[in-house]
Design goal:
- This protein is α/β, with parallel strands linked by helices and 346 residues long.
- It has a single domain (2-345), classed as 3-Layer(aba) Sandwich (Rossmann fold), CATH 3.40.50.
- 32% of the residues lie in helices and 29% in strands.
- The chain is built from nine helices and 14 strands.
- The chain has helices at residues 2-9, 23-35, 53-56, 72-98, 133-139, 154-167, 198-201, 258-271, 321-339, and strands spanning 15-19, 40-45, 100-109, 128-130, 143-152, 171-174, 189-192, 208-218, 225-228, 232-236, 241-244, 248-249, 279-302, 308-317.
- The longest helix is centred in the first third of the chain and has 27 residues, at 72-98.
Length: 346
Amino acid sequence: MAGLQAMAQAGSGVRVAVVGAGVVGLTTATLIQEALPGASVTVIADKFGQETTSDGAAGIFRPGLQFRGDDEKLTRKWLADSYAYYKKLLEVKGTAETGVKKLSGYHFSNDYPNIVWNALLKPLLEEYRPCTEEELRAHGFKYGTFSATLLTECRSYLPYLTRMFTERGGKLLRHHLDSLEELVGHFDIVCNCSGFGAKELCSDITVTPIRGQIFKVKAPWIKNFYYVDYDMYILPGLEAVTLGGTRNFDSYNAKVDKHDSTAIWERCVQAVPSIKDAEVLREWVGWRPYRPFVRVEKENMSFPSGKTLKVVHNYGHGGYGVMTAPGTSMHAVKLMLEMLPRQSKL
Ligand SMILES: Cc1cc2nc3c(=O)[nH]c(=O)nc-3n(C[C@H](O)[C@H](O)[C@H](O)COP(=O)(O)OP(=O)(O)OC[C@H]3O[C@@H](n4cnc5c(N)ncnc54)[C@H](O)[C@@H]3O)c2cc1C
């Protein structure tokens, strides 16, 4: 608690806490600093950097059709804002500084002609076309699309966000919160970006893990991404290629499963045979923090003690939190500004 007190007292202006140091929390924290330059912003989390779920994500910009906010218009706005944010970041600062890169590749299927098209993605991309007969023959599939999108490598992007945040005076505090009530009195407003942690912190039973197991391999000759239906993917990042994967709904197994490893490896080698020569760097399991609707919402929380706290929630991004963090975080910051009294924004 002393840590919280010290953090909250340092600096002047409105005292803001962001709970969570994954991609959603750090994105929100930097956007708050831009919207409220006089604010004292503290990121509080029990896991940072490589300890977070965000670290293991491949980071491709390719939303599943089940990704959604409260309505379709809002969902599409989050996606468009996010894509524009990463595109601009890449143009202005480049891949080496941020970890954002261009990536193109294929989505194939032998069974479902429609599965290779993504209605949420199509309006955003400059290049999204059916595969040519030659491409389908070369890869041995009946249906396919080719598209050019972006990938954000969190091994580079989280350090980039952290640098930006701390250079602007932001503070980091490692602390496990048993309840958001611990923040009452120390902060004027809180943005809750706790990912799967929101299940406990908000008693939100709709937050569910979707277990994902992957390999990270060294295979620098892989230049394109590949999806086969949604069961197999090969996604080249900056240092490693991600081979996946599993999507186990409501599974709390955090360990690498050898049967999953065999299945992932065999599917990837079958689709792209040169993967057999890849060097395995690590295997990893993460829980996608799924919620039927991503929660970006204001709440005046009141606790049994009678204490109250202004909170904006920003969690439940499932398998799409890297790509959509900018859009939902812009929305969360807008809601925070609406909750603050006028004079505290000056
Ligand atoms: C195998 C796999 C592949 C993926 N691939 C992609 C992809 O290609 N593209 C994409 O966009 N997304 C992908 N994702 C999804 C992505 O990883 C998540 O949506 C994203 O990381 C969620 O970010 P977050 O900041 O909400 O959560 P996290 O990164 O989990 O961060 C949560 C933060 O909250 C903190 N916290 C939680 N509870 C508490 C508490 N009680 N007290 C203090 N701190 C707390 C934690 O310490 C942590 O800092 C993938 C996920 C997996 C598992």
